[in-house]
Automatic annotation (TrEMBL):
Protein name: Aminotransferase, class I/II
Superkingdom in the source lineage: Bacteria
Record GO terms (molecular function): pyridoxal phosphate binding; transaminase activity
Species the sequence originates in: Alistipes putredinis DSM 17216
Pathways involved: Lipid metabolism
Family classification: Belongs to the class-II pyridoxal-phosphate-dependent aminotransferase family.
Length: 423
């Protein structure tokens, strides 16, 4: 018999946690301080920050801060007490749901406490063991975790590969017919790592040849894509063809929470059956009041989305003009692809932060294949063109060092928070 704690301790934190001894507080769990925005403080140094999904710059908008404060002052963080079904229902929750549904062009919407938890619960609620799922190979972790709960069969298709999707739909349809089930396709509007768009128009067109329903996670598309930021489905003109649309407040809305929308009967089914909401306290009132203000600003100020795209085009265009590989992004998400292992990546990030006062996220193995580095930049409406120019010059400097082998030949930096212990 194995002692659970002994096994966990020997595992040394897993594939990422195994590095916590030198990574904690610097490469992992870094503490950015100060007012949320393009310029924040990290370990006492002012940084140009490209690491927040604050797409429209609403996190520190004065009207947002005022609404958040008034909501907290009037209602406190405890209200409403209880789950929505029992005692946590308010007119403000209902108002926010109505306005969100109208904004994205769906009949009804249901508020969720968290995006990650919400997607898992949506998938669990929609499917029976007889149903078959077909999903994109690069679907977000919340989708994968939701599918792990599914007791039926699932097929994965190559990322944005429509020939692969068609083949998997054929297999899924045959199996579903045998066991009297249905078929659900799941994809994303904007893929958060590469920044490319899910081919929603082509997927919806396949409904002519196959009988399936479509669930889209548009966390990165809401507020950034489509007319007035109404999302990726609106961008492609296929809102009606997306059967279940999911969005989060954690990106463009700069808040906490999420919502799912679709036909009214389906949303009512979710209201009465989503376990993560039935047995969870209602979204606190200040977050609801704050979300109403954020949505109002998005509707009334299309210039926020326009500014976001001005910065995005300048950043992505400048990177490409200077020979950087940014892949197939079609959204503000801006990955910069480089070659190197973990030693190069860690030294490179230290150089960016210590020498250039620039903070961005880095992605390495095991999230992506060995030998690859992704520096992930998230432009926002709060950034400036000067920020873009500064960043491109800094990236040129670190690229020269990377290609010369400078980072490879340096020892791995030890940057963990002082006093942090893995035991």
């Amino acid at each position: 018999m194995v002692d659970i704690f002994e096994r966990l301790e020997k595992n040394a934190g897993g594939p990422i946690g195994m590095y916590m001894g030198y990574a904690h507080g610097y490469f992992a769990f870094p503490k950015l301080e100060g007012e949320i925005g393009p310029h924040m403080t990290f370990r006492g140094q002012k940084m140009l920050n490209w690491s927040l999904n604050n797409y429209l710059g609403l996190a520190n908008h004065p009207e947002v801060r005022e609404a958040d404060a008034k909501g907290a002052a009037e209602f406190g963080m405890a209200a409403p007490m209880g789950a929505r079904m029992m005692s946590g229902q308010t007119k403000y929750h209902e108002q926010l749901e109505r306005e969100l549904a109208e904004f994205v062009g769906k009949p009804d919407a249901f508020l969720l406490n968290f995006g990650y938890q919400g997607m898992i619960s949506i998938i669990d609620c929609l499917l029976t063991p007889r149903d078959v799922v077909v999903y994109d190979a690069e679907a977000h972790a919340c989708i994968i975790d939701g599918l792990r709960m599914h007791k039926g069969k699932r097929f994965v298709y190559g990322h944005n590969d429509m020939a692969s999707l068609r083949l998997q739909l054929k297999h899924a349809t045959e199996l579903a017919e045998q066991q009297n089930g249905g078929v659900l396709v799941i994809t994303e509007g904007v893929f958060g790592m590469k920044g490319d768009l899910g081919k929603l128009d082509e997927i919806v067109a396949m409904k002519k040849d196959f009988n399936f329903r479509l669930l889209v996670d548009d966390a990165h598309g809401f507020g950034t894509m489509g007319p007035h930021g109404r999302g990726t489905a609106a961008h492609f003109g296929v809102v009606d063809g997306v059967d279940v649309l999911f969005n989060t407040f954690a990106k463009s809305m700069a808040g906490i929470g999420a919502f799912v929308c679709g036909p009214r009967w389906l949303i009512n089914l979710l209201r009465y059956n989503m376990r993560s909401q039935l047995y969870a306290k209602s979204l606190p009132m200040p977050m609801v009041i704050g979300a109403l203000k954020r949505l109002d600003l998005i509707r009334k100020h299309p210039e926020y989305q326009e500014k976001l795209w001005e910065i995005t085009r300048a950043l992505q265009g400048g990177l490409k003009e200077n020979g950087f590989e940014i892949g197939v992004t079609q959204s503000p998400v801006t990955p910069v692809y480089m070659k190197g292992g973990i030693p190069e990546a860690t030294n490179l990030i230290v150089d960016l932060r210590e020498k250039h006062n620039l903070f961005c996220s880095v992605v390495v193995y095991p999230v992506i294949p060995k030998g690859e580095i992704i520096l992930r930049l998230i432009p926002t409406a709060a950034h400036t063109l000067d920020d873009v120019k500064f960043t491109i010059e800094a990236f040129k400097a670190i690229r020269n060092k990377l290609e010369s082998g400078f980072y490879r030949d340096k020892p791995m930096p030890m940057k963990a928070d002082e006093g942090f212990s893995v035991r």
